[in-house]
Amino acid sequence: xxxxxxxxxxxxxxxxxxxxxxxxxxxxxxxxxxxxxxxxxxxxxxxxxxxxxxxxxxxxxxxxxxxxxxxxxxxxxxxxxxxxxxxxxxxxxxxxxxxxxxxxxxxxxxxxxxxxxxxxxxxxxxxxxxxxxxxxxxxxxxxxxxxxxxxxxxxxxxxxxxxxxxxxxxxxxxxxxxxxxxxxxxxxxxxxxxxxxxxxxxxxxxxxxx
Length: 210
Prior knowledge:
Blueprint: H1 2-34, H2 72-83, E1 88-91, E2 102-106, E3 109-114, E4 126-132, H3 154-161, E5 165-170, E6 173-180, E7 183-189, E8 198-204
Antiparallel strand pairs: 1-2, 2-3, 3-4, 4-8, 5-6, 6-7, 7-8
């Protein structure tokens, strides 16, 4: 009888041990099954292309798509994408006091970039300035966010910008200044009366006529 009881005790211990091992393996398998099987994906960003219609004459660039300071190569590529090959692509002489190394011209519109090379001189790197000249054949229809462009009257400028608009007579004749939170837009007028019209508009750096 003692031998039989001992055998039963040993058998019980073996069965319990086997059950515990089996349970551990089952839990381990379950844990493995719940583990992630795919790696997280990276987010991607897209670049909105610049178009002729999206260009806005602004004190800090040409709208949200092309602010001043944008890398020179990217600026040139975006403008070509929007306007085609420039009619002129002119390197600027070293030491010229405009903080730019290159001027690109399409009809009556100019863009200046500072490529930051040994001849660039002082000035902010990248997209440096824009200029819209007198309207003519093929003139580009660029406007400010309030609809002002070359040919707009003094009366229209006053209505659009109110106290932010000021005019004066300088060395080059009648001119105006629009002072905004993001910067300054300036230009020339053919007269200081309300019937006078804007002859040019510009912001940022400028190096004179092409």
